[in-house]
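Thought: the user asked what Sporulation protein SpoOM looks like in 3D. I have the sequence; next I should run the structure tool and report back without guessing.
Action: structure_tool
Action Input:
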Amino acid sequence: MLKKLMAQMGVGASKVDLVLDKQHVELGEELKGFFRIEGGAVEQQINHISAELIIQFYYRTQLYTHTVATIPIASSFIIRPGESKELPFHYPLSARLPITRNGISYHIKTRLDIADGIDDSDRDSVHVCPPERFNSIVRALDMLRFREKLDSGKFNGSTQEFEFSPTGVFNEKVQEVEFEAALEQDGIRLLLEVDMFQFLGFGEKELRQQIFLRNEQLSDARALSHHLEAVIQEMTQNPQAYPASRYRSGLGGAIGSLVGDKVGIG
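Observation:
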């Protein structure tokens, strides 16, 4: 009787722990692992187990916390004293989620709902990574001596923006290059923005165009750098052909747009 009373107060009660196969997972991959439930000092009725994938991000100066998904794991069952159960877990990550960057983080909160007792919970960090083909774009720009800015990857209220500063041949014409990216089966679609210096270096002129990089192009960073160099060169030589006003609505299906659609703060 005392053990049951103590378990109802949380002492000697059942516990839950999420064990992930890996904490670094690429967009489009599955989060995989299992839940380990350990019985306590007495038999207990478990009402259900659920897991929430939660993102925290800054927009401007405010911190937001949003539940991306609530994943039911198991319904009602009995756990006996000292018993151990393992339940498989998997959840596919949308290619429209933001990737983990400064100011953007993820964790999974697991809740064990215990009948007539204090619920147990568990928290596990998850690092959402870009796929290798996305990293090829970053490497190609680096070859052109565009350096990624410290705050690159920030959430703009609708999507995730990636920003680069020129340190090479473009640094007299270009103030900044940034893009939004949509991962597609055959490649990556970019909304590319080039910010040019205006007359005598005062102010800037925004140029935009949409380009599609095939998976074959993304497999060779050196060749990709030559292609991007030609694209940026063309935009700076013919700025009137690439007005930013043509793409005010952003890039549909871009990385980060899933949170933008759900939160609706942009």
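Thought: the tool returned a structure. Summarizing for the user.
Final Answer: Structure for Sporulation protein SpoOM predicted. The first strand starts at residue 15 and ends at 20. The first helix runs from residue 2 to 8.
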